[in-house]
Every structure is written in C-alpha cells, then in structure tokens.
Amino acid sequence: MTARAMMNLRSILIGSAVFRLVLILYGEWQDAHMEVRYTDVDYLVFSDAASLMASGSSPYKRTTYRYSPLLAFLLIPNSFLHRAWGKFIFSASDLLVGYFIYKILKQRKVAEDLCLYSVMVWLLNPFTFTIGTRGNCEPIVCAMILWILICLLNGQIIQAAVWYGLVVHFRIYPIIYALPIIVVLDPRYVQLGKKPLLVNWKSNTQKPSSQSSEEASTRYNLWTAAKSMFSKERILFGLVSGGTFFLCTGLFFHLYKWEFLHEALLYHLTRADPRHNFSIYFYHIYLQYGHQLSLVEKLISFLPQSIVQLVLVSSFAQDLPFCFFLQTVAFVAFNKVITAQYFVWFFCLLPLILPWSDMKLRWEGLSCVGLWMGAQLHWLLWGYLLEFRGQNVFLQLWMASLVFLLANAAVMAVFIRRQRCSPIFLQMKVTDAKGGVKSE
Amino acid sequence: MRIIGWICWRWKMGIIWKFFFCCCFIVVTLSIYGDCLSLEDCILKSYFSKNEVLTDSSFQDLLQDELSKFSCKLLPGDPNPQLTLSGLERRLIGEGSHRHLSSTIQLQVPPQSFPLQSCKLVMIERLPSGVFADPFELDHLFHHGAYAGIGVFGDTNLELPSVSSNRSAVEIHMNFEHSISSGAMSELGIRIDLPLHARYAPLHESGYSEVAFGTPDLLVSCSMEGSSGMRSCLIVPSHDSNRLRTDVVWKIPCGIMSHTNVVSVVTFATAFVSTLVIVFASVLYPKPR
C-alpha cells in the first residue's frame, strides 16, 4: 500500500471510529435520560446472559438468549468493566470489516479510488453504523466471513476451515456458503501449501490482457466437479470445518445440555414466527398457527429457497464473493422470518462485488436502491398502521411483503445482468517430470 | 405522584413481618429473571409459588387468606382501620399494540390515631389473556423511579400468540405522598400508568379481538407497632361500586380465517415466481469465464 493510500484509508477508518464512539456515548446518554432506549433490546439480552455466565450460571437462564455461549463469553467484561464494552467490540468488528474489504480488493488489484469508495459503502451505510453502536452482534459474523475469504485468497485452507466451522456454530446461516467454497477449492486452482493465483480486477474499459488465456478455460460443470470432488483440499476443508463445528457444539452441549442445543441451534432451524415481519410467510404462519402443516406444505415452503441456492451456486461459485452475495440476498428474502438486522449479512459483501459491476449509479444503481428501499418503506408503512395505529391491515401488510420479495428478486436479476463475473482463481501451472512448466 | 425509592421489609413467619420489594419475574416454566425489583414476598409471588396458572377464583382465595393473616387490627376484636376508595378511573391510553393502562385512584383517609406508618398502595393487575407486560421495560421504568416496586408474574413470554400463552399479573407498589397518621382527613390521588403490549390474537372474522380488563385489586400495606415490634399489615379500602369507572376494552386487530386459502396460494405462487426470475437471470446471463 502506498503512503497516500494508507493515509486515505486511515482517515476513513479514524473518522468512522470517532463517529461510532460518539454514537455509543450518545446511546448511553439516551438510555439514561429518555424512556425510549437507543440500545437494542438484544444487547440487554446478551449482557444479562454474560452476567449469568460470569456468575457461573448458564446464559440460557436468560429468556430469549438464542446465541452461542461464545457471545456471552465475549461480553463478560460488560459486568465488571463497563456495560458498553460489547458495543465497542461490535463497532470495532464493524471497522475491521471495512479494513478487510479494502484488503480483499487490493489483493485483487482493484484501483485505489474504487477500493476506498467500496469501503465507504460499508462504513457510511446507516444500517452499518447503527447496528454495531446499538449493540447488535452481526458485525462480528461479517468480519469472520470476510476473514474466511481472505484466508481462501491466500490459500490458507486450514485456517479458513477453522473460522468457517466457528462462524457456522455462531450463526448457522453461513452454512449456505459450504457448497460454493467446496466448489472453488478445485485442485486446479487451489492446492495445499501453495498460494493460489488470483484473477486481477479489470475495469470495463480495459481490453482483456494476456492473462485471460490462463484463466480457467473449462467451464464449470457438474460432471467435472463430481470427478474432482474428493480432492485433499476439499476433504481437509470439510473435515476441519466440520470438526471445529462439532467440537464447539459438543463442548457447549456438555456445559449447558439440551437448553443450549434447543436455544442456540434447533430454535433457528425450526423458527416460524407468526408475528409480522418482512417475510412473505408470516401471515400464512399466523393463519395456520396451531395446525400441523402437511408434508406438501412443508416441502413447498422449502423448495424455492433450495432451488435458488442450488442454481446460484452452480452458476456463480467460481466468482466466490458474488456467489456469497447473491446467496445471502436470496437466503434472507426467502426465509420464514426476516428482520432488518439480517440485511447486514449481505451489506458487508456488496462492496466486494461493486468494482466488477457495470451498473452505473445513475440511474440503474439508484433505481435498484430506490426499488429495494421503496418496497421496504412500503412494508414499514403498513406495519406502522398495524402495530402503532391498531388498524387491521394484515392483508395489505402481507401484500407489501410479497412486493418486497419481488423487489429483491428484481434487484438480484439486475445485479446478475450487470456483473462482469470473474473467477477469483487462476489455473495453476505445474511442472512436468522434465522440469518444464505446463498448464494443467 | 413521584416515587423516590422503596422501603424494604423482611417478612418472617410468626413474629417480625417485613416486605422486601423485589421484581422477580416468574414465567410458567418457572425461570426467574435476575432483575428483581424487591418484591420478594409480594402477594403474587406467594400465589405463583403454589399455582402454575392464574385463575381469578384461586387468586381471590389466596387474597382472602393473606388479608386474614396480615390484618391491621391491633387486637382481634378491633375494627379494621377505615380507608375508602372514593374513586377509580381507568383508561387505555394510546393506539395500536403498545398502550398504557392508566389507573387514577382516589383514597380517603379519615383522621385516626392508630399508629400506621409508611403506607403504600398495592395494586394487583390480573391481566386478561391477550395482553402482557414486558418485565424488562418495567425494570427500566423502575430504575427511572416510576414505581416503589413492581413485579410481573405468570406467563411473561413476549413472543407467543395468545392461543399459546397463559395469563400474567403485575403487582405494583406505590408510596403515598402523605402519612396516614397525620391526624387529619386526607384525600390522596395516585395515578399508575402500566405499559402493556398486545399478543397476536386468535383469528376472528370481524378482524378484531376484544380484550376486557377487570377491576384491579387495590390494597394498602402499612407497618404498625404490634406487641412484638413493627409488623406489616394489609387493608382493603372500602368502596362504592357506582363510583368506580373500570370498564376498559382493548380492540386488537387479528387475522381473518377466510383469508387462509388465498394467502397460502398467493404466498407460494409469489415464491415460485421470484424463484423463476432468479433462475432465468442466472441461466441467461454470463457466467464466470
């Protein structure tokens, strides 16, 4: 990194850090002086669970604590240091995500100004800076996901696997990334002990360089993948990440028994909340609440998510950040419960794909933003009338959620159409028996 | 009405009676929150230590029992100290799923010379099925000095719809502004605002479910000089029902059963259409080269 680039990145990070500190201090003031709290109610849940853990009790004695004990462990200093300790951790993770975005893009030789704009897309996003300063733990998950990407870019398969097992234990949803990671660990591109060759960024005005002849010449297909499925890199990743996940899960099951398993894992897998949320399924769940759903109904609600995930992986796995982004948007949009904090899961991946997008801010980009935000605001309007005015607008609210899903699908289609999809890895050269270099 | 702190009394069987005011939130599954607000020996805690579910009849039985145990009579043959509930007005303030139940209480205290001290009003609100009080919100208000003490008991699960939840009850302790033993007639006005939230109601074709609130149980708890030292006692103020305006009904929007088929079909159809949009876009547009 040049000195000038460091200075600019440093300025952005320092400015963002100061702003977050001010928000945290303001939040403490608002909590102490106003009836309406700034702090998210989830943060109080984490803090209470951490206090229980500090006193030797189970964090699950705190009702609605549905996270890994690791989170409560991280927040133990809330009890003896300061109650805002956790907010500092989450905001620091948020800044770390900004740094990781820069690091990933620089590694792929993205132009400096684009790197900095991409970092600002994350750090200046209002969702981002409010979520950490209000005490939501999602920035930690985002930082872990990006670190996994960095490890994969550097060929550090074992480290990536350990972090991956840990993040799936922590939050479960990253399990959707398992398949594209396995796909991209193709022995032609990633080999144990060797740093992989990365496909560098090219602006849309640049002519293809000679590099392109060395890019993966064979299109991904299922048969190729099936044949090389059991490479040592893939097996190692699977074993290490699975081992990490089961080690964490086994340890906490030993400590906290079925309460941990139910609250931290099973609850999320079976969650179907009848209360209104962005999901198209909320009203259906409310109307059917208490009735046993038939096998057909369960299958129908499961199929759209599964089909979309499989198609996205088979189409875009080689462009791993883009695949992650699309998968996450789809996962959130088709989920049975959607809350605003889930949006952060794909906001942290958006800056990684922007340098490869042909979408201009005016007017295609702004239209996508307008469509997505507009659909959300439309839902929020009906939600306000239901929750704060007591009007029966269930049908309208449900229709607004349908519009929100369609808006998500439309935005995804535009992103796909405008993306200059690029594999992250170059095919590796190998030496033959006579010491000559050849491509595989 | 400002509450500046709370007074702790210890309540022991037999000789010395005190109240600890602690907010111990007990849910049906018997998990107790740590944010106790000093109502350790409140009436509702006694009730829920013996009963899992709140029913009006069993609660009334327990209340009668408590009143006879902790009477404010100096001697068994003495008449009960007279307190009159001269007015009770109840209103539901706000709109939507989050409202305040406001209770304005007028108490008349005749001049008497019995040594009652440090009295406080005890209000027990047995919430109907369909609404709940958030213990953590009440904890926050308690720490802002809104109550002398408060506790939520029963089913305090914040997430379940009313078909899957049981009733809960709130016990609130509020200090008086004037001492009852002042020797002069006192007219005391106390206002209690209780924030409440609506659960998702059972389905109904009208689109609204009505939740009616009953009359709260109002008691006065004081400490008095007994033969063995200070002890706590309870008084039920007498009242004229005609002067009480307690009808409060909360209309909560609810789902309509006749929407079921349309909602199911259109939900899955929309999911299918969205799937097709994404699948076609993925298939038609360029892949990673």
Automatic annotation (TrEMBL), chain A:
<comment type="pathway">
    <text>Glycolipid biosynthesis; glycosylphosphatidylinositol-anchor biosynthesis.</text>
</comment>
<dbReference type="GO" id="GO:0051751">
    <property type="term" value="F:alpha-1,4-mannosyltransferase activity"/>
</dbReference>
<feature type="transmembrane region" description="Helical">
    <location>
        <begin position="324"/>
        <end position="354"/>
    </location>
</feature>
<dbReference type="Pfam" id="PF05007">
    <property type="entry name" value="Mannosyl_trans"/>
</dbReference>
<dbReference type="InterPro" id="IPR007704">
    <property type="entry name" value="PIG-M"/>
</dbReference>
<keyword id="KW-0812">Transmembrane</keyword>
<feature type="transmembrane region" description="Helical">
    <location>
        <begin position="397"/>
        <end position="416"/>
    </location>
</feature>
<dbReference type="GO" id="GO:0006506">
    <property type="term" value="P:GPI anchor biosynthetic process"/>
</dbReference>
<comment type="similarity">
    <text>Belongs to the PIGM family.</text>
</comment>
<feature type="transmembrane region" description="Helical">
    <location>
        <begin position="12"/>
        <end position="29"/>
    </location>
</feature>
<dbReference type="GO" id="GO:0005789">
    <property type="term" value="C:endoplasmic reticulum membrane"/>
</dbReference>
<feature type="transmembrane region" description="Helical">
    <location>
        <begin position="366"/>
        <end position="385"/>
    </location>
</feature>
<comment type="function">
    <text>Catalytic subunit of the glycosylphosphatidylinositol-mannosyltransferase I complex which catalyzes the transfer of the first mannose, via an alpha-1,4 bond from a dolichol-phosphate-mannose (Dol-P-Man) to the glucosaminyl acyl phosphatidylinositol (GlcN-(acyl)PI) intermediate to generate alpha-D-Man-(1-&gt;4)-alpha-D-GlcN-(1-&gt;6)-(1-radyl,2-acyl-sn-glycero-3-phospho)-2-acyl-inositol and participates in the sixth step of the glycosylphosphatidylinositol-anchor biosynthesis.</text>
</comment>
<feature type="transmembrane region" description="Helical">
    <location>
        <begin position="235"/>
        <end position="256"/>
    </location>
</feature>
<feature type="transmembrane region" description="Helical">
    <location>
        <begin position="114"/>
        <end position="132"/>
    </location>
</feature>
<protein>
    <recommendedName>
        <fullName>GPI mannosyltransferase 1</fullName>
        <ecNumber>2.4.1.-</ecNumber>
    </recommendedName>
</protein>
<feature type="transmembrane region" description="Helical">
    <location>
        <begin position="84"/>
        <end position="102"/>
    </location>
</feature>
<keyword id="KW-0337">GPI-anchor biosynthesis</keyword>
<keyword id="KW-0472">Membrane</keyword>
<keyword id="KW-0328">Glycosyltransferase</keyword>
<feature type="transmembrane region" description="Helical">
    <location>
        <begin position="144"/>
        <end position="166"/>
    </location>
</feature>
<keyword id="KW-0256">Endoplasmic reticulum</keyword>
TrEMBL record, chain B:
<keyword id="KW-0325">Glycoprotein</keyword>
<protein>
    <recommendedName>
        <fullName>Phosphatidylinositol-glycan biosynthesis class X protein</fullName>
    </recommendedName>
</protein>
<keyword id="KW-0337">GPI-anchor biosynthesis</keyword>
<comment type="pathway">
    <text>Glycolipid biosynthesis; glycosylphosphatidylinositol-anchor biosynthesis.</text>
</comment>
<keyword id="KW-0472">Membrane</keyword>
<dbReference type="Pfam" id="PF08320">
    <property type="entry name" value="PIG-X"/>
</dbReference>
<feature type="transmembrane region" description="Helical">
    <location>
        <begin position="262"/>
        <end position="285"/>
    </location>
</feature>
<keyword id="KW-1133">Transmembrane helix</keyword>
<dbReference type="GO" id="GO:0005789">
    <property type="term" value="C:endoplasmic reticulum membrane"/>
</dbReference>
<dbReference type="InterPro" id="IPR040039">
    <property type="entry name" value="PIGX"/>
</dbReference>
<keyword id="KW-0256">Endoplasmic reticulum</keyword>
<dbReference type="InterPro" id="IPR013233">
    <property type="entry name" value="PIG-X/PBN1"/>
</dbReference>
<dbReference type="GO" id="GO:0006506">
    <property type="term" value="P:GPI anchor biosynthetic process"/>
</dbReference>
<keyword id="KW-0812">Transmembrane</keyword>
<comment type="similarity">
    <text>Belongs to the PIGX family.</text>
</comment>
